[in-house]
Amino acid sequence: MKKYFLTLLLVFTAGILSAAAQGVTGKWKTIDDETGEAKSIVEIYEKDGKIYGKVVEILNPAKREAKCTKCKGADKNKPILGLVIIKGLEKDGDEYTDGDILDPNKGKLYSCTIKLDGKDKLDVRGYLGFSFIGRSQTWIRV
């Protein structure tokens, strides 16, 4: 009985530590805040101490070949599939800030903050100027 309890405690502790270590990195299903539709899968990863996110799957078959025609600069006319849409976020307490998020449909770049809501939900906020003037989405871990 003692071995069983110890094993159970060890497995439980390892699970908690694994979930906490995972943080915001991983694959996330994006949910459109206006339609409620799942749109894509974005892989969030860390590079040089900052957080980035790349579109790795587009869920609507009719939009899989879409390009970022309204984007400016280096992203103009790039395929949305494979496009880095979250750039340069830095950890600030329990959220990530001071980076940008690209809306490839509108070609607009917004300031961005992201924050975990539990282990399987990610609150993503894009805004211009002040954080209270913007849009929020909740993404779901895949």
Structural summary, described in words:
This protein has 142 residues and is mainly beta. It contains one helix and eight strands; from the N terminus they run H-E-E-E-E-E-E-E-E. It has one helix spanning 2-22, and strands at residues 26-31, 38-47, 50-58, 84-92, 95-103, 108-116, 121-127, 134-141. Strand 5 and strand 6 (108-116) form a beta hairpin. The longest helix is centred in the N-terminal third of the chain and has 21 residues, at 2-22.
Form type: globular
CATH architecture: Beta Barrel
The largest sheet has its strands arranged as 1-2-3-4-5-6-7-8
Order of helices and strands: HEEEEEEEE
Helix and strand topology:
Elements (H helix, E strand, L loop, with lengths): L1 H21 L3 E6 L6 E10 L2 E9 L25 E9 L2 E9 L4 E9 L4 E7 L6 E8 L1
Antiparallel strand pairs: 1-2, 1-8, 2-3, 3-4, 4-5, 5-6, 6-7, 7-8
Protein name: DUF2147 domain-containing protein
InterPro entries: DUF2147 (IPR019223)
Keywords: Signal
Sum this structure up briefly.
15% of the residues lie in helices and 47% in strands.
Keywords, separated by commas or semicolons:
142 residues, mainly beta, Lipocalin, 8-stranded antiparallel beta barrel, 1 helix, 15% helix
